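Auxin efflux carrier family protein
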Amino acid sequence: MEFLDLFIVALMPVLKTLLITAVGLLLAIDRIGLLGPEGRHHLNNIVFFVFTPALMVSNLSETITFSSMVTLWFMPVNILLTFIIGSVLAWILVKITRTPKHLHGLVIGCCSAGNLGNLLLIIVPAVCDETNSPFGDSSTCSTYGEAYASLSMAVGAIYIWSYVYMIMRVYANNSIKDVNTHDSTISITLSGESAETFPETCTESLLPSRDCPSSDDHSDQVELTHTTSGGKEKVSVLNQIIQCIKMSAGQINLKMLFAPSTIGVIAGFMIGIISPIRTLMIGDNAPLRVIISSASLLGEATIPSMTLIVGANLLKGLRRSEVGVLLVVGVIVVRYIILPLLGVVIVKAAHSWGMVGSSSLYQFILMLQYALPPAMSVGTITQLFEAGESECSVIMLWTYAVASFSLTLWSTFYMWIVS
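Structure:
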């Protein structure tokens, strides 16, 4: 296909997303007020508890089989790579820009966690429906594309509410500690002497939070040094790492980790993989096909509802702007230049090594996972910890504004590569 044709194909879903986002922004203004704070709260709950799990169940159960699991195994690995690489780049960014310490968690969250949910669910089916789509038959493309996007959403949610949640929580707790003590250096003194300072990340993870067990509950779990008859003996580095991992694991929000969307994915996999259940529920002659049909009907409301919420949440970013320009530009460079380029290298290398199949649609989605704007769940986490909410709104506003151009260009480039 010509590059211009691919550009038009990639542009259409982005324009649809922008239009629906603009409607959400309009509904959130004070004069209309349909998506004010209370309205967004109720709509978000419906999407979170009803629409999204229904979408996961219906899409995955119809397309996922035991044999297809072999094809999809690389996707969780690919998404994990986006989080790890994004975190490393974010760490470099905060050092270069001298970002205030209380915003480090926010920057890491924005650079590591992409919007692996509703944007893929909008872009992929819209690309498949275009007459010039390079991915073949539109119905087959849409079915498999939505299944890939649904799995991407579920895996992304697991990583966000474990990996990103833990990092942002550590920095939020550390900020609270700094405010209360006016001292950013934490040390442990034994027998009147200053003990060896713990690694920064481990030290922060020991700090108490409002909804976690206090540090007193773990007071006997971590010891930096202990005194013997022969003097002070250092605990081995391995023991320190193990204790750090234990404390970090204790901060994972299991309730959010096993969110309704994750449960929907598990149910979808079970229906699709287990043959007796699949026979009962999938197919034109299946006796319980009405269950999947009803779930599919509910799931269709997920995409427009989530996009309206995104638009409504961006309103706060228009009202307050306290983030430095250099920091916003840095996040944009990480998410829309460095990560997408690395995504091409990683996916192509995985394909050449036989880790990714020859499906052009699958390769396209794997690459696109590196070019997405920050996940809206990052904003939810800042609201939970009441840290960096206004700064997050500003970053979201500008990154999503730039995404309208970058997503179009990268989608075009990715389709040109795989077609």
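Confidence is low (pLDDT under 50) at residues 182-234.
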